[in-house]
Amino acid sequence: MAHADLDQAAKAILTENDQGGYTIPTKGLYPYQWNWDSVFVALGFAEFDQDRAWQEIEMLFQGQWRDGMVPHILFRKDDPSYFPGPGVWGTDGGPIPSSGHSQPPVAASVVHSLVEADRTGKALERAKALLPKLMAWHRWYLAYRDPKNLGVIAVIHPWESGRDNLPDWDEALRAVEVKDIGPYERKDTSHVDPAMRPHKEDYDRYLSIVAACRKVGWDPEKVAETCPFFVADPGVTFIFLRANRDLLALAEKLGMSAEADEIRGWIAAMEKGSRTLWNDEVKAHVAFDERRGKQTDGISSASFLALYAGLHDPQTLGALQGHFDRIAERVEYLMPSYDPDHRSYEPLRYWRGPVWAMINYMIAKGFAEAGDAVRAERLRADTARLIETGGFAEYFSPETGAGAGGGSFSWTSAIWLTWAS
Ligand code: 9WN
Question: Does the annotation count 394 as an active-site position?
Answer without folding.
Answer: yes
